[in-house]
């Protein structure tokens, strides 16, 4: 059973990756400082998987502690999911985002090199793509000119990894560009963390559905889209987790650099998501328009053909059936 370190493994995407890895016979080891997750999720992972889940409470910037953990386990691969992820908060606290996301990655890479671990899957984001270019977005579409500090941290990390692969032939680097993950594990035990007012659409809708918030704020109604609201490529988080498995199973962690889009290839507007949620769950979601959020692009959806062709991976869930498990 292969050990795989997974940074940010107690987070929303990380936990779903952990479940998929265990089901496929891997032994994931979680590295997380629980700054945006809860230790209680470890027990939930053990309930779902029926297995003991190893984890370490560690900040990746703590090189001494990280090195000691690496020395305890034989491991060839790291899945790097850790990082702050809010566009809005990155605009409020850009220094914190650069320090955490970039600093933790540099520390991780250095400790990996010291331990002779040269395979990594990096959780990147659609936010690295330039705005105002032909859609759907392909892996060779232009990147940079990001709209917010969060996207810029992902872009800078990608550039670091590209240079690393170019200048050190020992590395096998896969960049997974996520589009907009939604939904949750079918058990209902895992969910996207949303303390306070959520930053992402689906957790916000859920809080309104639960009457914990009076209405949903729709940020902007005058974008150049079919109904004036932003369009995104919403992918079920389980499909996303399975994308990481496809990278492992198909032996695509070969030397050098590989980049893959993980999305459905279909864009849905904010209003379409609200209507689909209302139809699926037979519930009304009150909403009000408010001003645009800084850093939001109008339209973003991908071409996922490369992942299908090279990894035999594709999204199994569409928007409608991605909403089935949410209210569990």
Give the total of beta strands: 14
State the helical fraction. Answer: 25-40%
Amino- and carboxy-terminal Cα gap: 32 Å
Task: Enumerate how many helices there are, as a single number.
Answer: 11
Low-confidence stretches: none
Calculate the mean pLDDT score and round it.
Answer: 93
**Gross CATH architecture of the domain at 3-182 and 235-263 and 303-315:** 3-Layer(aba) Sandwich
Q: Please give the largest β-sheet.
A: 7 strands, parallel
CATH class of the domain at 3-182 and 235-263 and 303-315: Alpha Beta
Gyration radius (Cα, Å) is 19 Å
CATH topology tier name of the domain at 3-182 and 235-263 and 303-315: Rossmann fold
Instruction: Give me the side-by-side strand order of the main sheet.
Output: 3-2-1-4-5-6-11
In terms of DSSP E residues, the strand content is 15-25%
Shape: globular
List the helices and strands in order. Answer: EHEHEHEHHEHEEHEEEHEEHEEHH
Q: Which class of secondary structure composition applies to the elements?
A: alpha/beta
